[in-house]
Amino acid sequence: MNWLIEKRTLIIVICALLPTAIVGFIACHQTSKIIKSSEKLSHSQQVHDELDDILSLCKDVETGGRGFALTGKDEFLQPYFNATSELDKHFRHLSQLTRNNSNMQEKLIALDASVDKKIEQVEKLVLTRKQKGFEAAGQLVSTGTGRKIMENIRRQVKEMDDEEDRFMQTISGQSEDSNAQTLRVSTILAVFALALIGCNVFFARLPD
To answer: Can you tell me the mean pLDDT for 18-38?
Structure first.
């Protein structure tokens, strides 16, 4: 009879510990998923940062060109020179970050082409100011070509930002759903484990 009681107790203990082990496994698995989600969100934030930097540098290109067109002083070109030397680095990094997203790669190529147009437009403005003077440079600015190029660059950057935002929202939503599901399963298993432990205590106190 004693061996039957011991066997029964052992079975109950095993059944009580099994849900706890499952909860532990789920917790480890969920932690791994959270880490991966965090890495994706961090990656997405880097894309946003690079896009912001590219747009800011394009503004510096424009500022430098306009400053020189107004004054004819070389020191106003410094933002232009600084920006053009930095843009390639940011485009390379952004290309690496989006290498697994064909749609973003296509948008990046289009953005790169627009930025090249902006640099060419500012170079033409600077050359005109140097060779033909203030009035000729002013006439070139009045055509609105530079403004249209900048508007297009802003639009392209916003489209890429919006796409990355949608990706971040998808990852966040998946993470929240996964966390909620894990919490429900863990709660059920924890309650089941406590119930089995209670049964174990109850039967252990029964007379032989």
So the answer is: 62
